[in-house]
Structures are given as C-alpha cells and as structure tokens.
Design a protein that fits this description.
The complex is a heterodimer of chains A (263) and B (104). Chain A contains ten helices and seven strands. Chain A is mainly α and 263 residues long. In chain A, strands 6-5-7 form a three-stranded mixed β-sheet. A two-stranded antiparallel ribbon of chain A has the order 1-2. In chain A, strands 3-4 form a two-stranded antiparallel sheet. In chain A, a hairpin with a 4-residue loop joins strand 1 and strand 2. In chain A, helix 2 packs across helix 5 and helix 9 crosses helix 10. The longest helix of chain A is centred in the first third of the chain and has 32 residues. The radius of gyration of chain A is 20 Å and the shape is globular. Chain A starts with a helix and ends with a strand. The model of chain A has no long low-confidence stretch (mean pLDDT 90). Chain B has one domain: Immunoglobulins (Immunoglobulin-like). In chain B, the strands form two sheets. In chain B, strands 4-3-6-7 form a four-stranded antiparallel β-sheet, with no helix packed on it. In chain B, strands 1-2-5 form a three-stranded antiparallel β-sheet, with no helix packed on it. With 104 residues, chain B is mostly beta strands. In chain B, a hairpin with a 4-residue loop joins strand 6 and strand 7. Chain B is elongated, with a radius of gyration of 15 Å. Classes of the chains: A mainly alpha (263), B mainly beta (104). The interface between A and B is medium-sized, with 17 and 17 residues.
C-alpha cells in the first residue's frame, strides 16, 4: 500500500515537472520568435532569384508563383494552388522546380541534385523559399481551394495524413493525432485541427537553431517519412504537395508571420 | 555561411530603445571535426560594440559558447527617433563587420 502511495507521488511529481518544462518552453518561444536568423538568408535568396542560370541563362524573375509572372508579394501565402500551365497543384518548391525547367531550361536531375543543404551551404530551394516567403509577411494564408484539382489534392492529403504505411505502420496521425503528446521536449501539434496547424504553418520555412540550418516544408515531409521508415518520397511529388496543401488549408486565415525559428 | 551580412532593427519605446541585431558568423568552437576527421579551428566573435550617436554604450566580450548566426537584443536607456545606432563585431581571426541604422 505504501509502495503504491510512493509510486503515485512519484508519478505526480514527474507530471508536474513535465508541465513546468512545457511552461518554460512556452516562455522561450516568444523570446526567440522576435528575431529569426532566417532573415539573414533573405538577401542571398534574392540574389539567387535574380541570378541568370541554366542552359537558357535566365533568372527566375519571370516565374509565375500564382500572382502573375514575377509577383512575389503575397504569393507564398496563396500556395499551394492549381496552375493551369502545369495542370497540377503545386507548392512553392515544386513550382520553383517547374520554373527552373521551363524558364531556365534545367533538367530535373540537375536542379534537384541538392535540394536539402547544410549550415555552411543552404540549397537553392532553401534560400529561395526564405526570400519568397518573407515577401508574404502579414498576408493571410489562403491556399487554392476552388478548383476541382485543389479539392482532390486536399482530400488526398487528408487521406495520407491518416494512412498508415511502412515497416513501422506509422501515419502522420500516429504522432500528430492526440493532444498533449510530446517526444522528449518537443510538443507534437495535432495538425489536422486548425488551432494547432495555424501557428505552425504560418512560421514555415524556418531557421532551425539546433542545426543552424534553413529548413522548408518539403524537407519536413521528407524527414517525417524518414522517421516513419518509409522509402524516401520524391521531392515535390504529388504525395508531399498533397500533405502540404492539406496542412496549409487547415491553417488558412492565419496571417503569415514567418520565416520563423524552430528548435 | 561564412561571416557575412548583418541585419538590425532599432525601435523606440517609452524612455528606451530596443535594438535587435542578427549576425552571420560560423562561431566555430574548435571542438568540432570535419568530414575528414580534422578539427575545425576556432573561429568566433570576441568583441561586440554598440554605439549610440558615436558614443559607445555597450562593449561586450563573448566567446565560442554563443551559437552560429547569433541574434542579440539590447535595451538602451533613452534615445530618440533618428538617433544613429552602430553595431560592430571583431572575431579571433581579426575579421570584423559593422552595421548602422536609425532609431525608428
């Protein structure tokens, strides 16, 4: 009996300290949110956007991100969306890849040879994402949801979120499905619920403090599938775009306030 | 990224000025090894100076314990719109960088 009481007391104290840790993390977040080193990457991102490249030796400045060729203001906040010229729904990174191939004449293999970079040398997609997303600060997140293909992509993303796959039989919802869960210190937001998806989506792409790296949503999808032990998803594939679209639609209405910080 | 661009914002509060500055710097501790197993030499910011209208208000000595691409914020007493804030750093290789902005 005494042992049970002791165990109960121990359990209570563990629960209390977990709660304190949660509170401390909440206190830490606004402190680091005030200034993100992501901003340092906006300038090299802009230079890359304007740099002539590829067999056609042209820049990406005429790339249509949905608001018209070369229009960046608010473009990120309205992605992913349906593009008639490509006849598919695209997120920022798959759209950039499309522009690299159509405008600059680059091959898919060459353009995607290094999609995820390092602290010393971020990838093209990372630098461009930070610059372009920064041009949407304060704009409400409103991805495309009127076209039939946009609705189909949303439905596919939603199905994928709950679809269990791989050797470990995991889905996104295995980790991001219940409130109050965490892995070590990391809280796991329930991303199919708007109140959790909104602040998360509004801060991507981001600077990750622990690795000093710029990270994008395509990287996040790739890394989640890696952690789920599935084969590696293709960069900018229908699967990754559908998941990003589903999450972004869930977060719609939130003013975009990134590029942010991640631990 | 190697040592490079800085970004700064200085905003006026009630009787104080908040300065926030971002720096690009590798901040190598000298404890890390590269892909070939060789130690990456120490490379970190040693001195940080904040000036307000030419007068030094903060002179800080920092070490390799500070993260890569550091972010600093300071609250300075007083200040007025248009006051010139300058922030500069000097690292252990003798490299330096500086930025200035007007209080907004």
């Amino acid at each position: 009996m005494r042992l049970i009481a002791f165990a109960a007391a121990l359990f209570a104290s563990c629960a209390a300290s977990a709660q304190d840790v949660g509170k401390e993390i909440q206190r830490y977040r606004p402190m680091v949110a005030a200034g993100s080193p992501a901003e340092l990457f906006e300038l090299p991102g802009e230079e890359l956007w304007k740099k002539p490249q590829g067999p056609k030796n042209v820049s990406l400045e005429r790339c249509d991100l949905g608001e018209g060729p070369g229009v960046l203001k608010g473009a990120y906040a309205h992605l992913p969306r349906y593009f008639k010229d490509a006849d598919r729904v695209m997120d920022l990174e798959s759209r950039l890849l499309y522009c690299m191939s159509t405008l600059q004449g680059r091959s898919r293999d060459e353009a995607t040879a290094r999609v995820f970079g390092s602290a010393e040398r971020p990838s093209e997609f990372e630098l461009l994402s930070i610059y372009i997303a920064g041009e949407s600060r304060g704009v409400r997140i409103e991805p495309g949801m009127s076209q039939p293909k946009e609705k189909a992509t949303y439905e596919l993303g939603r199905a994928l979120y709950f679809h269990r796959v791989g050797a470990w039989d995991f889905s996104c919802a295995s980790c991001h499905g219940d409130e109050g869960k965490r892995i070590r210190m990391q809280e796991l937001p329930v991303l199919y619920k708007p109140q959790y998806a909104r602040p998360v989506i509004a801060s991507w792409p981001a600077y990750r403090v622990s690795t000093s790296q710029v990270i994008t949503l395509q990287w996040r999808m790739n890394d989640c599938y890696r952690q789920m032990r599935t084969p590696e998803p293709t960069f900018g594939s229908e699967t990754t775009v559908a998941l990003i679209h589903f999450l972004t639609v869930t977060a719609r209405g939130e003013p975009y306030h990134g590029p942010g910080n991640k631990r | 990224m190697a040592a490079g661009p800085m970004k700064m914002r200085a905003s006026l509060g009630a009787g104080f000025t908040d300065v926030r500055v971002l720096m690009t710097h590798p901040m190598e501790t000298g404890l890390r090894k590269d892909a070939d197993g060789k130690i990456v030499p120490q490379h970190f910011i040693q001195n940080l100076t904040v000036k307000m209208n030419g007068k030094t208000v903060i002179d800080a000595q920092i070490s390799q314990a500070v993260s890569r691409n550091p972010v600093f914020s300071f609250r300075l007493k007083g200040g007025a719109k248009g006051d010139k804030i300058e922030v500069s750093w000097l690292d252990n290789h003798g490299e330096s960088a500086a930025i200035e902005a007007a209080v907004a």
